[in-house]
Amino acid sequence: MWILVSAIILLGIFAAIAGRIMRAKGNAPSGEENDASAATECCGMHAVCEKDSLLAAAGKEIEYYDDYELDEYGNTPSSEYSDEALERFEEVFYTLRPEDVPGWVRSLSMRQIEIPDKLKDEIIMIVEEEREKKNTSR
Question: How far apart are CA 48 and CA 24, in angstroms?
C-alpha cells in the first residue's frame, strides 16, 4: 500500500517538474498564454462558443426574437423535430440579420430549446462568419 502511495506522489512530483521545464523551454504554453487564447478562440465543438453565449448570458434576461411559438419545443431532442417544427425554426432563422443569429441561439439555449439538426451547419457557418468579422474589426 505504501509503495503505491509513494509511487503516485513521486509521479506527481515528476510531472510538475517536467511541466516547468517544458514551459521554461517554450515547448508548452504557460497558464497566461492558455487563458489568452481561450478568451479569443472557440473550441469549435458547440453551435455557439460557450464564452460568447452561455457564459455571457449568465444573469441576463432571455431575449426573444419574435419567436415565442418556439417555446413549445423546449426539452425536445434536436433530432426529433417534425417537418412543421423545422419550418417554424427556419421562418425565424431566415428572417434574422446575421449579427442577431448568435443572440438567437443563446436565447434558445437559455430556454432549453435545441436547434434542429438540419439547421445546425448553416447556423454554425453564420456564427463563425460573425465571430470572424468581430475579431477582425478589433
Answer: 35
What pLDDT score was predicted for residue 21?
77
> In the 8-state DSSP scheme, what is residue 32?
H
pLDDT tens-digit series, residues 91-126: 999 999 999 999 999 999 999 999 999 999 999 999
Q: How many CB atoms lie within 10 A of CB 113?
A: 20
- Indicate whether 63 pLDDT > 80: yes
| pTM for the model | 0.59
Long-range contacts of residues 56-59, Cβ cutoff 8 Å, at least 24 apart: 56/106, 57/106, 57/109, 57/110
How does 17-41 read in b/e, with b if 16+ C-beta sit within 10 Å? eeeeeeeeeeeeeeeeeeeeeeeee
User: 62 with 110: CB under 8 angstroms?
Assistant: yes
Give alpha helix (H) positions in 26-116. Answer: 31-40, 54-57, 83-93, 101-110
